[in-house]
User: Which sequence fits this backbone?
C-alpha cells in the first residue's frame, strides 16, 4: 500500500530521525534538517541532512549518530565515506543520514533535490531527562 500525502510518518521512523538529528546537533552539526520522504519516495521514510565544518567533525558527527541509534538497538545497514570525512552516508533502512562537510553539501545540494519533501519540525535541544531518584 502506498502512503497518501496525508498519512503520517511511521512513529518509529520519526523517533529514529529525531534521535539522529539530536545526536548530530549534540556534536555541533550545522543546519540539521529532517525531510519526510515517505510520501515522495519508496526507499526510505526520512533523510537527516547536516554538515560539519571540517572532516574530523564530519566523522565525529557520523559516529555520534551511529552510537546514539545503537542505544535504540538500531544498527546501520551500511556506512559509506567515514574514512574520507567529506560525505558520510549512514543507511538505517527507514531513515538515511547524510553528514557532509560544508562544500560537499553545497555541491550535491540534497536540500534542493528533495526540496519538495516536507521538513519535519524537530526540536534539537530537548531538555535533559530528569535524573532517576536515588535509591
Assistant:
Amino acid at each position: 500500500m502506498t502512503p497518501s500525502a496525508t498519512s503520517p510518518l511511521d512513529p518509529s521512523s520519526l523517533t529514529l530521525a529525531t534521535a539522529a538529528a539530536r545526536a548530530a546537533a549534540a556534536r555541533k552539526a550545522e543546519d540539521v534538517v529532517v525531510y519526510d520522504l515517505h510520501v515522495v519516495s519508496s526507499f526510505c521514510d526520512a533523510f537527516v541532512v547536516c554538515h560539519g565544518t571540517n572532516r574530523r567533525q564530519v566523522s565525529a558527527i557520523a559516529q555520534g549518530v551511529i552510537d546514539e541509534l545503537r542505544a535504540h538497538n538500531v544498527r546501520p545497514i551500511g556506512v559509506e565515506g567515514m574514512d574520507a570525512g567529506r560525505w558520510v552516508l549512514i543507511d538505517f533502512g527507514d531513515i538515511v543520514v547524510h553528514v557532509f562537510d560544508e562544500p560537499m553539501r553545497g555541491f550535491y545540494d540534497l536540500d534542493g533535490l528533495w526540496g519538495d519533501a516536507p521538513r519535519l519540525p524537530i526540536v534539537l535541544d530537548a531538555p535533559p531527562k530528569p535524573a532517576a531518584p536515588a535509591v
Remarks:
- The chain has four helices and five strands.
- The radius of gyration is 15 Å.
- Confidence is low (pLDDT under 50) at residues 127-131.
